[in-house]
Amino acid sequence: MVERAFTAQAEGFNASPVMNARAVLDLLVQFAAPAATDAWLEMACGPGIVSRALAPLVREVRGIDLTPAMVELARAEAARAGISNVTFEVGDATATVLDADSVDGAINRVSLHHIPVPGRLIAEMSRVVRPGGRVVVGDHLGDEARDDFAWSQAVERLRDPSHWASLTLSELHDLGASAGLTLIDERVIPLTLDFDEWLQRGTSDLDAHALIEDLIGRRPAGTDRFRLRERDGARMLELQMWIGAWRTVSG
């Protein structure tokens, strides 16, 4: 299901203004704190947007993604930008063939909510990063309150059936701790998307659109991590995105 969904979404994801937002990319790079001699890995890299942001600052970047269409697009975009120190390959980011301790850092953005048992990805990132290296993750947050969470996840799954579940802040913290990682920095930032662009990028199914519109009209009063607002005649979806940096255990 993930491969089918992201094959359809590849071009839209790559062109999406929010996926290319400079402020988010800069913060991810800041949390990565890359050195010029580093080798980095982008897990579930999609079209390689984060890899391209990292590439000028490090020795090499390697991207892995399950969807061939995403990998092909990542290669084409890197070539178009004249970036020669990135490579992309098809593979399962939760179970790579890489050696343990083989890279200086690993980074992942907005894919944890697509992964059943997302701790598998964090554990794999921890495994492949050398002792003392960094694991950086960014994803939008789920509400802690059960009813609010259930509502937002119903909207998300109607819009994109490959959506599994957004994680709460406490769940993200627990995933890192379970993987033996030490949290060294974190930030929650607002993430604002054009609602109609977001909806169309996920699905063109008009029945799903109608169900989503109905749900939007019945939004729980307490939901604070998934809001819809009007701005200059456009509907804007306001999410909250968590970006965190962990350090692997030093040898």
Quantity of strands, as a count: 8
Give the number of helices. 9
Shape: globular
- N-to-C SSE string, H for helix and E for strand: HHEHEHEEHEHHEHHEE
Give the class from helix and strand content and strand pairing.
alpha/beta
Which spans of ≥5 residues are poorly predicted at pLDDT below 50?
none
Share of residues in strands: 25-35%
What share of residues is helical? 25-40%
User: Which radius of gyration do the C-alpha atoms yield?
Assistant: 18 Å
Report the average pLDDT across residues: 93
Termini separation comes to 39 Å
Quick one: biggest sheet? 8 strands, mixed
Model description:
By secondary structure, the protein is α/β, with parallel strands linked by helices. It contains nine helices and eight strands. It has helices at 2-15, 22-32, 49-54, 68-80, 119-128, 146-159, 169-178, 195-202, 206-216; strands spanning 39-43, 60-65, 86-90, 103-109, 129-140, 182-194, 226-231, 234-247. Strands 1, 2, 3, 4, 5, 6, 7 and 8 form an eight-stranded mixed sheet that branches. α1 (2-15) runs parallel beside α4 (68-80) and α6 (146-159) packs antiparallel against α9.
Question: SSE layout and pairings?
Answer:
Blueprint: H1 2-15, H2 22-32, E1 39-43, H3 49-54, E2 60-65, H4 68-80, E3 86-90, E4 103-109, H5 119-128, E5 129-140, H6 146-159, H7 169-178, E6 182-194, H8 195-202, H9 206-216, E7 226-231, E8 234-247
Parallel strand pairs: 1-2, 1-4, 2-3, 4-5
Antiparallel strand pairs: 5-8, 6-8, 7-8
Helix pairs in contact: 1-4, 6-9
